[in-house]
TrEMBL record:
PROSITE patterns: HUPF_HYPC (PS01097)
Protein name: Hydrogenase isoenzymes formation protein
A GO MF label: carbon dioxide binding
Organism: Salmonella enterica I
Pfam hit, one: HupF_HypC
NCBIfam families attached to this UniProt entry: hypC_hupF
């Protein structure tokens, strides 16, 4: 499984941005796959490269989930504490899949 990690842009460059990770460390992130970010922007990263820009609210949710997973691996804490946003609602399909899976399909043959 791949897990994306949010980082906040401190100093954008042409191909790399200096970013602050969830532990407060400064890291270089490859930004060639995304539109040029501004300082203060949040990026979802995987493998040292930005995959997409995200808003602060989403970054906070993902960071809480990652902290919860880390705590669950280190202790006997309740791993659900970091997933409050998911426990209070039903799962949703991404927009690009909703039409494929939520639209009733006919299984009647039209042949004669």
């Amino acid at each position: 499984m791949c897990i994306g990690v949010p980082v906040q842009v401190i100093s954008p460059g042409q191909w790399f941005a200096k970013c602050r990770d969830r532990h407060g460390e400064l890291i270089d992130v490859d930004i060639r796959l995304v539109a040029p970010p501004l300082a203060g922007a949040w990026l979802l990263t995987f493998g040292g490269a930005a995959r997409r820009e995200m808003d602060e609210a989403e970054a906070v949710e993902v960071l809480a989930a990652l902290d919860s997973l880390e705590q669950a691996m280190l202790t006997q804490s309740d791993p659900l504490t970091g997933f409050a946003d998911l426990l209070s609602r039903s799962p949703e399909l991404p927009e690009h899949l909703k039409n494929d899976y939520l639209t009733p399909k006919s299984c009647l043959s039209t042949g004669g």
